[in-house]
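Input sequence (220 aa), recorded before submission:
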Amino acid sequence: MRNGLLFGVTLGFCCISAAAIGQPEEGGGAPAAAAPAPRIGAALHGARWEFPCRDPRREYGNGACPSGLVKEKADPKTTDQFTFDRVFDGEPGKRYRVTVRFRGVVESMRYKNGKQDGDYFYIGGEPDNPKYNIYQLSISSPESHYFLNRQDKLVEPFIIDYTKTIEIDGGAKVTFHGNGQNGVLKTNLKKLVVPDVPPAPEAGNGQFVQMDVVSVEPAP
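Predicted structure, token format:
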């Protein structure tokens, strides 16, 4: 059970610059030239699940910290969680095969009644432990959901770095959900760093996953 999500600052969406998605940036001198349309998948690129410790600079020597998502005296069962949505910017009526890369530092979590795909990716199903952090990705069309940190053995935080291909219909709602469940999370006691992913080159004390879009192709 651990911290919450952020997109660059706290609980938000990370920073996709206007230039990165083909939109003119504010400020500057001469008017910008007409920019190309954003590439498909830009709305999802760089999205982050984030579970911060309450004090992001403190050394928690016991391997656990209070969740930064839970305010003083708040109920962790209702506040140690976050959910945000993005709309997949494909053409409505078309289905796409979207290859995404998941990188981060996470604690393990058990799931059941679904299908494991690789070491950590879990298709469908439901949580099977009342204490550890849940990292979930849901698609409205075709209706589907996935978990990102599946491990039967509940271990200390570890690095994940893998790619998966999922199907998403143009215009579908993509939901990013995290639930720490109990207001406490395992800290990054080993000071693990994921290269090229913030907070790199520093090692934060909390947990996170960043999702980047690798490629998008029409589904057959």
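Checked by second reader. The CA atoms of residues 60 and 156 lie 14 Å apart.
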